[in-house]
Design goal:
Helix content: 55-70%
Structural class: mainly alpha
Number of helices: 24
Shape: elongated
Oligomer: single chain
Strand content: under 5%
Number of strands: 0
Length: about 400
């Protein structure tokens, strides 16, 4: 306990360190006071008196005593916000007693250091976060995007993705890591990643141009349908509707959705194209006959050959787990490809050429993925020796020296 006379002596001392001790004691006593009201008022008056102390050390001790308290008196905090930069930044960074209106008024005239201190507060509202983005530069934007607890409106995230996502790899990564990124903005960023990879010298120099184009196209299609699957699972149909309206949903995309097991997205696309209720589309996809599926796809505006191919693919998909089983995907694509060759006597109709080319690409891709690790897994499971052919000595090739 400190007697009143001792406190008065400390507060009137010529030594700034002692006056700082008095300011900190007064702050702690005010916050933890349970005594008479006149005593509380005297402590409040003492706090106000320390605001006029000429020493930054004393005013800093006062601020330090009030920093983390929700009950800290706001007039004193607002005065400390106009104090020296080191004190003001500490108050804005740590004080939970400040409300959004205080922060908004501060942001309008703050410098970069003060804006960054505001961005590191424990809690930020969407309003304050977006005001910081509007006033700050790239480092501040990166700091805020890196915090998943900071809320942003979908419109703001779309604007950032369109404005900075195409050219800034770090910001692009921070945006893609956010769970609240809208689906259409995520697709824009994925397409920007594909463009960046295509123009990266290390990538373009290591992979043949045609193969790189196929890899990037397949990855982009997979991202498009995977985003659609997540949106459909969450009941957010506008993503599929926007893709249909923008004419992004081609036969290739619909095939890719089925092959990758993204059936919810496929159903949403069919519902949008055919203007059929989603529940009815699901019923037809799960249990509909070939003629019912043909009628549904006819409402989508698909040609007869494409309708028959999709119906056949759906019948194969009903008996396989395409979402998680690579071998099942490979089997379904292989079976469909062979059926198309047999049905058309090896002469694929022009309207199926693009789809057939896609199925052939997927056949190779899925075969490679399904085959990875098969031999090593088999070798770990069996103890028998493999009978390999022995080369005769005279059959060895004599390669010329390089």
């Amino acid at each position: 306990m400190v007697a009143y006379q001792d406190f008065v002596a400390l507060s009137q001392s010529r030594d700034s360190e002692e006056r700082g001790q008095a300011a900190h004691l007064a702050a702690m006593a005010y916050l933890n006071h349970y005594g008479p009201a006149d005593e509380h008022a005297a402590l409040y008056a003492a706090l106000i008196g320390f605001l006029d102390d000429p020493s930054v050390r004393v005013r800093g001790a006062l601020a330090y005593g009030l920093l983390h308290a929700v009950e800290a008196p706001r007039p004193i905090l607002l005065a400390l916000l106009q104090d020296s930069p080191v004190i003001a930044r500490a108050v804005v960074q740590y004080s939970p007693a400040l409300v959004d209106a205080d922060l908004m008024a501060l942001i309008r005239g703050a410098d970069g250091a003060m804006l960054m201190a505001t961005a590191t507060r424990e809690r930020l509202s969407q309003r304050v976060a977006e005001a910081l983005v509007a006033r700050g530069g790239r480092p501040l934007l990166a700091k805020l995007l890196d915090r998943p607890d900071v809320p942003f409106s979908p419109t703001m995230l779309r604007q950032v993705a369109d404005r900075e996502g195409a050219d800034d790899a770090e910001l692009r990564g921070l945006l893609l890591a956010r769970d609240d990124l809208p689906a259409d903005a995520r697709l824009v960023l994925v397409q920007a990643v594909a463009v960046a990879l295509r123009s990266t010298r290390m990538v373009s120099g290591a992979v043949a141009p045609h193969r790189l184009e196929r890899l990037l196209r397949d990855a982009t299609d997979t991202a498009l349908t995977a985003i659609g699957e997540q949106e459909a699972a969450a009941g957010r149909a506008p993503y599929a509707a926007e893709l249909v309206e923008a004419e992004f949903v081609s036969t290739r995309v619909m095939l890719h959705a089925i092959v990758q097991g993204h059936v919810l997205f496929f159903a949403d696309c069919v519902a949008q194209l055919s203007e059929t209720p989603r529940d009815k589309v699901f019923t037809l996809l799960e249990h509909g006959s070939r003629s019912a599926l043909n009628a549904l796809f006819s409402r989508c505006g698909l040609s007869g050959a494409v309708r028959n191919m999709l119906a056949r693919l759906i019948f194969h998909a009903r008996a396989a787990d395409l979402a998680d089983d690579l071998a099942a995907r490979h089997f379904v694509v292989t079976a469909l490809t062979e059926e198309l060759i047999v049905e058309h006597d090896g002469v694929i109709p022009p309207e199926l050429e693009e789809a057939f080319a896609y199925l052939s690409e997927q056949n190779v891709i899925l075969a490679r993925r399904a085959a990875r690790g098969v031999m090593s897994a088999f070798a770990g499971m069996t103890q028998s020796e493999m009978a390999l052919p022995q080369l005769e000595a005279d059959e060895r090739l004599a390669l010329p020296a390089a």
